Amino acid sequence: MTDPVVIFRAQSDVEASIVRGLLEAHGVPSIVSSPVTHSVFPLTVNELGEVRIAVHPADADEARRIIDSHRTELGSGQVVRLRDEFETLQRAIDYRFRDRGLLEHALTHTSRANEDVSGGVTDNESLEFLGDAVLGFVVADLLFRELPASSEGQKSKIKASLVSTPTLARQAEQLALGDHLLLGRGEEKTGGRRKQALLADAYEALIAAIYLDGGIEHARAFIARAFAPLLDEARRTGSSGGDYKSALQEYLQARDRPLPEYRLAGAVGPDHRKQFQVDVIVDGAALASGAGASKKEAEQDAARQAMDKLEKI
User: Fold this and answer.
1) Is 204 a catalytic residue?
2) Residue in 104, 128, 201, 204 annotated catalytic
């Protein structure tokens, strides 16, 4: 069996991922290895080691040519590392990672990890779990401070709306987070970059990555910035503005149209991570579809999308 040839040595997982993706885009398969054992969270490799990318000897010259053609040269002729493809995202979130491997980890869907034969890629499910807890804590703290006169029930209702799948998916869309997701081929083909569940999960994982990289204050600052418009609305009206079902009903009643109906279209995923799909029916026809972690959440999302369509008519 022919031994693979190392053609690139990276200093971090994220840089290795960029190079590997570049090679795969040109039809050159590669493997990644490192003398440093990967933990649950990908490491940015320092002086203790490096991430190595190797290819079949027959592909070595072509792989080096591809990499060289995508390097950036300074005026002095010095060659610097490949462009960081997460730069635009870091600008959008107004936070720069010290360990960019954490950012890569947060954006890695399980479909990508399952397709990686090297075993060196970990999906973002653990980060999603942590991010959910960090987000819930920070939002509760913000509501406690911003709405001191509101009852516990009011604050709980607002919090549930703010941390719901539809809300988090919209927050992710504002960052164009879907453009940066690392997906497997199958998920890519089925429109994974636009799926609400994937976007919401990645958004929570992103929050966890910021927390691990910079601490709770940086995570809190990001959440406070991102949710400021929703919190402002809650401060003014005492609600999160997320009751789209009521808004749709009022809209239709004002125009003498029949009330909407909500029909369960299906449910996907295991019991502990089930996603419900609901259609909203107006005048006997499906006007929009929504998704959520519960039937009520999916109905609210369907109503939101229906309102978006009606307001554009």
Assistant:
1) yes
2) 204
Q: Are 9 and 47 within 8 A, CB to CB? A: no
Residues contacting 141, CB < 8 A, separation 6+: 220
The CA distance from 14 to 106, in Å, is 11
The label of the residue with tokens 């406070």 reads 224
Q: Which of 123, 132, 187, 279 is catalytic?
A: 132
The predicted model scores a pTM of 0.60
Q: Is 187 a catalytic residue?
A: no
Buried b (16+ CB within 10 A) or exposed e, 84-111: bbbeebeeebebebebbbbbbbbbbbbb
**What's the pLDDT tens digit per position in 219-271?**
999 999 999 998 888 777 655 555 678 778 877 887 888 899 999 999 888 77
Q: How big is the chain by its Cα radius of gyration, in Å?
A: 23
